[in-house]
Design a protein that fits this description.
The protein has 13 helices and no strands. By secondary structure, the protein is mostly helical. α2 crosses α4. The radius of gyration is 24 Å and the shape is globular.
Length: 317
C-alpha cells in the first residue's frame, strides 16, 4: 500500500524533473548567447579603433586626461584647448584611466569597464529578485533569475554596448547595486544602512546624469515602506550628490554645469517624446507586461501579509 508520504515524495520528484527539463533549453540558450557574446567580445577588444559614435568623444576626453590635462580644465572653455565638450561627469573617465595601464590602451580599458559592468548588472538583478521569494521557494529561484538574465542580456543596448567604450552599462550596474543594497523590509533603514546604497546611486548619476530610474525607484520604494527612511535617502542623495556637483562646478569655474547640463539640454518636444515611448513599448512590451504583473503580485502579497498579521493577534486568547 502506498502511503501519503510516498505519494508526496513522488510528486516532489516529478516537480523537480519538470523544473530541470524546463531549465534545460533556457540553459542551452544562455550558453549559446554566452558563446556569441564571447566571440564578439574578443573581436572588439582586439580592434584598435572606435566602432560606435559614443566611443570617439569619450576616447578623446580620456586621452586629454591621460595627456596631463587637469580634471577641472577638461570642463573649461570649449573655445580653448583641448577644445572639448564633455557631456558626462568624470567618473567613467577615471575608471578607464585606472585600467589603462593593464589594458594597454585607453580604448580597450574603456571597453573593459563596460564589459565588467554587464555581469555586475546581471548579478544585481539576481540579488534583487531572490529575496522576494519565501524561504522554501528560494531553491526554485534559479528559473526566474535565468529568465531575467536572458531578457536583460537580449536587450540590444546590453548586447551591443557591453563591449564598447560607453558609459551606459556602468551607470546601470551601479544603480542596480544601489537598489540591491537598500535595507530589506525586516531591517531598520538607518542613515548608516542607507549610506552604501546612496553612494552607489550617486555614482551612477555621476557616470550618466540621465539615469534617474534607480534613484527614483529607491525613493518610491522606501516612501511606500517608511516615509522617514525615504526622506533620509533623499537627504543623502541631495546632500552628497549636490556637494560633489558644487565642488566640481567651483573647481571648473562653472564649466562643469556648462558642459554636462547647459550644452546638452534639448528643448522639450512632445511629439518626439511620444514617438520615442511608442517605439520603446513596441520593442519591449513583454518587459513592460512582466513588470506590471510583478508589481501587482508584490502589492497583493504585501496586502495578504498585512491581513495575516492583523488577524493573528485576534486569534490568540
Amino acid at each position: 500500500m502506498i502511503t501519503t508520504a510516498e505519494i508526496l515524495s513522488r510528486r516532489q520528484r516529478g516537480v523537480r524533473l519538470a523544473f530541470a527539463l524546463a531549465c534545460l533549453p533556457l540553459l542551452l540558450l544562455l550558453l549559446w548567447l554566452g558563446y556569441a557574446f564571447g566571440v564578439r567580445m574578443l573581436q572588439l577588444l582586439g580592434y584598435p579603433y572606435p566602432l560606435d559614435y559614443g566611443e570617439g568623444p569619450l576616447l578623446a576626453q580620456v586621452a586629454a586626461l591621460a595627456g596631463g590635462t587637469p580634471l577641472p580644465a577638461l570642463y573649461g572653455d570649449p573655445d580653448q584647448p583641448p577644445f572639448l565638450v564633455v557631456n558626462y561627469p568624470p567618473l567613467f573617465h577615471l575608471l578607464t584611466l585606472l585600467l589603462a595601464w593593464p589594458a594597454g590602451s585607453l580604448l580597450t580599458a574603456g571597453r573593459i569597464v563596460s564589459l565588467l559592468a554587464a555581469p555586475a548588472a546581471l548579478a544585481a538583478l539576481v540579488v534583487l529578485i531572490r529575496p522576494t521569494l519565501p524561504g522554501r521557494l528560494r531553491s526554485m529561484a534559479s528559473l526566474p533569475a535565468l529568465l531575467i538574465i536572458l531578457a536583460f542580456a537580449a536587450l540590444p543596448i546590453v548586447r551591443e554596448w557591453a563591449t564598447l567604450m560607453r558609459v551606459d552599462l556602468a551607470g546601470v550596474a551601479l544603480g542596480l547595486w544601489g537598489l540591491a543594497l537598500l535595507p530589506r523590509t525586516d531591517t531598520p533603514a538607518t542613515l548608516r544602512r542607507l549610506l552604501p546604497a546612496a553612494l552607489l546611486l550617486i555614482a551612477s548619476l555621476f557616470i550618466k546624469p540621465s539615469l534617474l530610474a534607480a534613484p527614483v525607484a529607491a525613493c518610491c520604494w522606501l516612501f511606500w515602506r517608511d516615509r522617514h527612511a525615504a526622506l533620509r535617502l533623499v537627504l543623502l542623495l541631495v546632500g552628497s550628490g549636490g556637494g560633489i556637483l558644487l565642488l566640481l562646478n567651483l573647481l571648473s569655474n562653472g564649466g562643469f554645469w556648462l558642459h554636462v547640463v547647459a550644452a546638452n539640454a534639448n528643448p522639450w518636444q512632445p511629439l518626439l517624446a511620444q514617438g520615442f515611448w511608442r517605439e520603446q513599448y513596441a520593442l519591449h512590451w513583454p518587459l513592460w507586461l512582466a513588470a506590471g504583473l510583478a508589481a501587482g503580485l508584490l502589492v497583493i502579497n504585501g496586502q495578504q501579509r498585512r491581513c495575516c498579521r492583523s488577524t493573528i493577534p485576534s486569534l490568540v486568547p
